[in-house]
Write a structure and sequence with these properties.
56% of the residues lie in helices and 16% in strands. The chain has 165 residues and is α+β, with helices and mostly antiparallel strands. Strand 4 and strand 5 form a beta hairpin. The longest helix has 26 residues. The two termini are 43 Å apart.
């Protein structure tokens, strides 16, 4: 992302932060103590939201990793690789206007991925309803050519599964 776009996003976030603080002060009848406290919380909240959004826009790093053992959908959490023999199919799905690479998993692997922590367990049911079964999306695959990536992963899964089995 260009520096200009990052600057525009930061400026927009700052404007939203200031506008929200002013809105809370004016809604509460002027700058009394209660209004200033609420405006202060709004300023901090929207400021943090802007900072998190900005970091998400400019964050680099590896989107996912393909190893000899399998696919790491989140390289920031090592040890959670999806083994090749647990990948049932690879396809491209539409989510809104985006095309995303989706890995269908065996039920056992989906459960293993969900059992990592309480948040994963809570979201696994939602994920299953969205994807239509035990599956995961590979992050940030919309910028690439998802069809070519999915085809390559299908071939890789076939080669790796045959080598392992």
């Amino acid at each position: 992302m260009s520096r200009r776009k990052v600057g525009l996003v930061a400026l927009g976030g700052a404007c939203l932060t200031l506008a929200s603080g002013a809105m809370f002060v004016s809604k509460l009848g002027g700058p009394d103590v209660g209004g200033l406290v609420v405006a202060g919380f709004a300023f901090v909240f929207f400021g943090l939201c802007s900072a998190v959004s900005l970091l998400a826009l400019v964050r680099g790093g590896t989107a996912f990793a393909v190893t000899t053992e399998g696919v790491e959908a989140d390289p920031a959490q090592p040890g959670r690789a999806i083994p090749w023999d647990q990948v049932v199919t690879v396809e491209v799905v539409c989510q809104g206007r985006d095309r995303i690479v989706q890995l269908h998993l065996t039920d056992g692997e989906f459960e293993r991925q969900a059992d990592v922590n309480a948040v994963s367990r809570a979201l696994s049911g939602v994920s299953e309803r969205i994807t239509g079964g035990p599956a995961v999306w590979l992050p940030r695959t919309t910028a690439a050519h998802p069809e070519e990536l999915a085809q390559w992963l299908r071939e890789e899964a076939g080669h790796r599964s045959r080598a392992l089995g």
